[in-house]
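[Q] Does anyone have a clean structure-token version of this?
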Amino acid sequence: MLKKRRFISGLFFLLLLFSISFGQSGSGATAKEKPLDSFKAIESNITEHTLSNGLKLIILERHEVPVVSFCTYTNVGSNNEVTGITGISHIFEHMAFKGTKTIGTKDYEKEKIVMAKEDSLFDEILREKDKGERAPQDRLKQLEDEFAKAQDEAGKYAIGHQFDAIAEEEGALGTNAFTSYDQTCYIYSFPSNKLELWMFLESDRFANPVLREFYKEKDVIMEERRLGIESNPFGKLFEEFMAAAFKAHTYHHEILGHMSDLQSISRHQAEEYYRKYYIPNNLTIGMVGDVKPQEAIALAEKYFGNVPRGEYPTPVRTKEPKQLGEKRIEVEDKSQPILLIGYHRPNVTHPDDPVFSAMADYLGGGRTSRLYKILVKERKIAVQVGAIPAYPAEKYPSLVGFFAVPAKDHTNKECEDIIYQEIEKIKTDTISTEDLNAIKTRAKANFIRQLKSNMGMAIQLTSYQVIAGDWKELFKQLDRINQITAGDIKRVANQYLKKSNRTVGELVTIK
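[A] Here you go.
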């Protein structure tokens, strides 16, 4: 039986971060969980290879169990979208599971004729709707009826979930994908003796995708937006908050996109987006587990090598201008109050990135943090509170953030005032050596824990390769943590945690 796939958007990723923050015990995780000197051994077992078309492979041998975990990292996310096509990265993520010219269809030659009819009718419907009030409703109704019939006809040729079925029948686990602001990743694990099957399936779906059931799947995504944002108090707050925090950079729109864009995006636009970004020289594949590098490289050459490289996409060059004063937004809802605070910060390749992590951990990293002790334990003003070192993403300058959920009969303002008080203290007071060592110990333990899982390692290696420019930067993280000083935390707090640099969002309860 096929498992329901979870598609992860920016909002849900942030909610996941919140839950992780609240789930931290802070009660004794140590860096001794794995010998630090083993990092050199791990690094020595990594093989890097780039095909002639630009596709990069990063392969880590781990032969403990006969399983290989794969991450196909596509260097495209919602930050690459422009007005009119917001949400298209996430749409294509769904489409990548719909099959190819040979997978997911009963008769592709007949199917493509009907899909072309769908596209023609959809374009005509849009042209009529563009007329606004002048649109002839009888003609529009006729077109929509014809479009619905074309969708039904196309559906007769589709074999639902065949890609998943083939993979899972051969032992695949965790077949999934996620879209973020910075990337789209496709992940699953296979028995090591199915390496060639993975190569066939993955190369086929990225070289020969068929965007079948496109318009029906858009309906699914629009419902996802209604449930996750438009009917969700926190979803509404987060979307408004990000739109206020970023006026220029494309982090300002939610990964699911605007509803009007979702309604109007055509299959032609999605295919054009695919041709621009889903090219070999914009893909990085991580393989971790029971795999022999030379065998994997030979198979990659066989299955991916003939896919033509493309013109490398232009990166996002729009920069968020310096904020000139505090921004505040309110979202009214029949819900409990919630507070979000964000300060602009550099991206994660900046030398101060580990300092932001240390500062966020000290102030709001779990139940041992300053804010949790004061707001939740001692004064019982909040039921939840925490800090996130970098959100909504990492590739470009983002935010260091704080959040709180007031307790009954308490307010956002009470929480906000105490958060500012604690921020001012780290600007003037030097944190103790004991606290600094505890921060470093937790950071090392959390970092090491991420590397234990094969899938976690595959995602980390590909992410560091693309965002930091070299997967080897992953293994320098512990050195960066060790170099943090109490003076660094004070300096960064004074430089970035300023009123003129912050955005505040409140969910205000109405009756």
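[Q] Thanks! Anything notable?
[A] The chain has a mean pLDDT of 92.
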